[in-house]
Design brief:
about 180 residues, alpha+beta, Immunoglobulin-like, 4-stranded antiparallel sheet, 3-stranded mixed sheet, 4 helices, elongated, binds copper (II) ion, metal-binding
């Protein structure tokens, strides 16, 4: 049947694909706003403090989890953010599980448009740094299809590392698999 060389070529191509996919997996992080508290007025969550503990990068995703009967998410301008003005939002999200991928650097202002909620502190400023490549250590969570609920359990510093390791593990198995069969 096919030469060992041919099968090894296939193995190399597969290996490259595996490696490429592992890189892609660690491209963007997912952050659940408020962590386990979610997006709420209960408990006086300090969303400024929450945001201050994160280092956001372009292509990161923020998830707002809340009861859509009581809250919503509006992206607003800086002026509207400061004034808690929900009259002309840039965009409005109402599903109760809103994933928003940040595509640009700079400040992204969000508030709850339900009367009184923004004034009560249900507002968050997501500041995305200009130069994501400067990051001294990989930060942010894995964008894996895991439900957002499990996301805060992971350390932001561990996820990309784990992802990359997982990609390499797959690669190794792939190579072993192909070489095993090319040997027969
Ligand atoms: Cu609200």
């Amino acid at each position: 049947m096919g030469s060992i060389l041919g099968k090894r070529a296939v193995a190399v191509v597969l290996a490259c694909l595996m490696f490429a996919s592992s890189i892609q997996l660690s491209a963007g992080a997912v952050y659940k706003v408020g962590d386990s508290a979610g997006w709420t007025t209960i408990g006086n969550v300090d969303y400024n403090l929450w945001a201050a503990t994160k280092t956001f990068h372009v292509n990161d995703t923020i998830v707002f989890e809340y009861n859509p009967q009581f809250h919503n998410v509006m992206q607003v301008t800086h002026a509207e953010f400061r004034a808690c003005n929900a009259s002309s939002p840039i965009s409005t999200h109402t599903t109760g599980n809103d994933s928003i991928t940040i595509n640009t650097h700079g400040h992204h202002f969000f508030l709850c448009g339900v009367p009184g909620h923004c004034q009560a502190g249900q507002k968050v400023d997501i500041n995305v740094l200009r130069a994501p490549s400067v990051a001294p250590s990989p930060s942010g969570l894995t964008p894996s299809p895991v439900p957002p609920v499990t996301v805060p359990a992971l350390s932001p510093n561990d996820a990309p590392h784990v992802n990359l390791q997982f990609g390499w593990l797959l690669l190794v198995f792939q190579l072993l698999f192909v070489f095993y069969f090319s040997g027969n």
